[in-house]
Design brief:
Layout (H helix, E strand, L loop, with lengths): L2 H14 L17 E2 L5 E5 L4 H6 L6 H12 L8 E4 L13 H18 L3 E5 L1 H10 L7 H4 L4 E5 L2 E8 L2 H6 L2 H19 L1
Parallel strand pairs: 2-3, 2-4, 4-6
Antiparallel strand pairs: 1-3, 5-6
Helix pairs in contact: 1-4
Bound molecules: iron/sulfur cluster.
């Protein structure tokens, strides 16, 4: 079996029975992540929501439909990218993940990044951006300040371009964010064309 596939299957098996924090207790399914293991771009969201929890797949609710629309607007398909979340089980009632839950769960995300070795990390929302910024020694003061900007860094010894964006769920509540997201996806397309 391909080495990447084997490593990811091991990780998914661990996530499915993980008890490192309490979030599994309230969840129906783990949502480890999915997509191409050779993706040039990896998207990192916050946590599974209602539909993700039900189906065990990331970004399958309304925010997922918007993500698909945005991907399609720059000629990308889900199968070409990889998507994972900061935490792999749904926080009850969609509350924010707590710092100890993020700490317990992010070793899985780190391993996913090391397996996939993406050239670009798109961080969606404040939890994802805050976590990735902390890993590369950047101060994080909020998505509004950093979205749409490209940060060239090294992560786990690999050169990486970090592109923070609003979380698509935010655009469901504030339609102004949709135009901002569309603009940031154009930036992503320009980055991918320059690779
Ligand atoms: S959220 Fe992460 S750390 Fe917590 S139980 Fe699920 S997989 Fe484990």
């Amino acid at each position: 079996m391909d080495a990447k596939k084997k490593l990811m299957e091991e990780l998914i098996a661990e996530v499915n029975v993980c008890r490192r924090c309490q979030l599994w207790r309230h969840a129906k399914n783990a949502v480890p992540g999915e997509g191409s293991l050779d993706a040039q771009v990896m998207f990192i969201g916050e946590a599974p929501g209602y539909w993700e929890d039900l189906k065990g797949r990331p970004f399958v609710g309304a925010a997922g439909r918007l993500l698909d629309e945005l991907l399609s607007s720059i000629g990308l398909r889900r199968e070409e990218i990889y998507i994972a979340n900061v935490v792999k089980h749904r926080p009850p009632g969609n509350r924010d993940p707590k710092p100890d839950e993020v700490e317990a769960c992010t070793p899985y995300l780190d391993r996913q990044i090391k397996i996939i070795q993406p050239k670009v990390l798109v961080t969606l929302g404040r939890h994802s951006t805050g976590y990735v910024f902390s890993r590369v020694g950047l101060k994080f003061r909020g998505v509004t300040e950093v979205r749409g900007r490209v940060y060239l860094k090294r992560l786990f010894g690999m050169p990486i371009q970090i592109l923070p964006m609003f979380h698509p769920a935010a655009a469901l509540y504030n339609p102004n964010y949709k135009a901002v997201l569309a603009e940031d996806f154009k930036r992503l397309r320009a980055i991918l064309e320059s690779l």
